[in-house]
Amino acid sequence: MCALSALPPVEFDVLQDLTNPPMKNPVVFALVLRALSLHAGEKTVYQTGKLVDLRRESTGSGAARAQGSFCLAVEVGDTKYLLRREAYWRWSYEPTDLVVGDPVEIKIKGNDMYLKKSKGGDLKTYITRQERSAPDKKPITCALPVTTQN
């Protein structure tokens, strides 16, 4: 049950509400204040990370289907993330405007990482790997590891 539904019903005089600013009407003020506090609780907090790698992988299937997917590597604090972005349609956003080595604003929700796009909005990616940074470890990358056999 919502806390606002526990309030007694209030009749509003439309003419009075139009002539009095909401701050002079205590009921309207309380409702506005409650709505603002609920919205403030949903405020998204972004962290600053660094884009370490970005690669496009060709998938090529269908006329309307996107022809590629993207692998991104991001470092945030002492954690490195390997991300995957699947573009499903040919007109889907492709993160080609991101520059490797530049800072990126990110937020994490579950297994998804959202990167703030330069022209507004977020790019949703899927976290495929995360690891702690260490001085003796190589930087995380989208390249496939190469091994040789003797």
If you had to describe this structure to a student in words, what would you say it looks like?
This protein has 150 residues and is α+β, with helices and mostly antiparallel strands. The protein folds into 2 domains: 11-41, no CATH class; 47-132, no CATH class. The chain has 2 helices and 6 strands. The protein has a 6-stranded antiparallel barrel. The longest helix is centred in the first third of the chain and has 16 residues, at 26-41. It is extended. The N and C termini lie far apart (68 Å). The model has no long low-confidence stretch (mean pLDDT 75).
Q: Main β-sheet: number of strands, strand sense, barrel status?
A: 6 strands, antiparallel, barrel
Query: Based on helices, strands and strand pairing, what is the structural class?
Result: alpha+beta
How much of the sequence lies in strands comes to: 25-35%
Termini separation comes to 68 Å
Strand order of the largest sheet: 1-2-3-6-5-4
Helices and strands, with pairings:
Blueprint lengths: L13 H6 L6 H16 L5 E12 L9 E9 L2 E8 L16 E7 L2 E5 L5 E11 L18
Keyword list:
single chain; alpha+beta; six-stranded antiparallel β-barrel; extended
Précis, in short:
The chain has helices spanning 14-19, 26-41, and strands spanning 47-58, 68-76, 79-86, 103-109, 112-116, 122-132. The protein is an alpha+beta fold and 150 residues long. It is extended.
